[in-house]
Amino acid sequence: MTVLEDGKVFVGGSGRPEYVQLPFANRHGLITGATGTGKTVTLQILAEGFSRAGVPVFCADVKGDVAGLSMPGEPKDFLAKRAETIGFADEYVFEAFPVVFWDLFGKEGHPVRTTISEMGPLLLARLLDLNDTQEGVLNIAFRIADEEGLPILDLKDLQALLVYVAERASELTVRYGNISKASVGAVQRALLVLEQQGGQMFFGEPGLEIKELMRTAPDGRGMINILAATTLMQSPRLYATFLLWLLSELFEDLPEVGDPEKPKLVFFFDEAHLLFSDAPKALLEKIELVVRLVRSKGVGVYFASQNPLDVPDTVLSQIGNRVQHALRAFTPRDTKAVKTAADTFRPNPDFSTFEVITQLGVGEALVSTLEAKGVPSVVQRTLVRPPSSRMGTITEAEREQIIFTSPIGTVYDVTVDRNSAYEMLKSRVEGKVADAPDAPPPAQGEVGVGSVIEDILGLNVPRNKRLSNTQKAAREVTRDLSETIGGAIGGSVGRQIFRSVLGGILRR
Hints:
By secondary structure, this protein is of the alpha/beta class. It is built from 18 helices and 12 strands.
């Protein structure tokens, strides 16, 4: 019996073959189920099917086992038995798929970068967990950068820009609204935390070109782009914000294609609850808009999560292809989740969907996909097909070999630090100091703008000398930062810590 057909991705058998139809694969999808029920394998076999059909794939490797797509599978009795049961034995072969590894930290794949400007104030505020007032200050900083031609590429650009905004707070408040030193200090503190978590690796150049994710291999199979996320998951907000940024870039950059014969890209969003958890209304509206409209760009988005309640109804209503693994009903919330999942399927008169969800075994799922004219199929109890690639992780040597032979080459492996807001503001400060007739010479052996900024902030002004209004405002911001950084540390020690931090930033 032949189950692999052109124009279809084979999911498994329910007494008949179950497929995701390629013409409707950009109508999005949802994979849900409790831990250990087989969600990762389902994601893996869907990625294999899309790749085999010539569709590029992007997915995050949260636990490290999705990387097995890059290696052929190994014969095992339970895999052979499953293949025979669903009529897949004659076509079941083990094969590796073309893979490109990516990593925000540049350790387990090619570095992925974007600039602060491309991220934008809305997503950046989400990443930094800012309140409305702090987000307002961030928006003002972006506005000043646009008006004065100051490119914001990396964290040091934004940090220097915020110092500049604080210095001009009284002037800018009249034009844009109140800029409090406490709010500026809060944003700076959030940036320091982000930097300590490795966020500086993500912001910079060269930025990721979306076309890199749309590649096909020489044999016509779609490239599977795997984001190494085992370390990234330690910063879940960075993980969710990055994937939302990437989805937004796809939406903005790709042309309208309507309903193509097959998707231009399939995007898997694992641990989807991190995207929607505690998201403000403005961000949820943006997510809903992107998910609703990115379909017309030929991009299918497949969310994977433990609980269907993790996905808002506004997004759930956009999803046409569903794979539901087992859920357990131990609590009232669990029971509600099972009922919600059951109600999203087109009923099958042969069984109760609600009851079957709690009875499914590992590797078994309820499947409903879009058929002719985009009509959802009747839900079927399905044995998910065994994967052709490796189930599990790969070795470090195997990963290094794939990275070494990657079609991406070394394009993204070296950071480029061009002239931007930090360098421009540094030049302005040094120019002002050079033009001042009574400017004191820098201390012996001290080169750069660290001491210059300290003079502007009033950190080096003797006690018996009057501060300028700018220095007073800047010193207040500095004091707030130093108190927060030091916590219970005294003000003078806190200022020394902040001086060393700020000096280090500006001397890079």
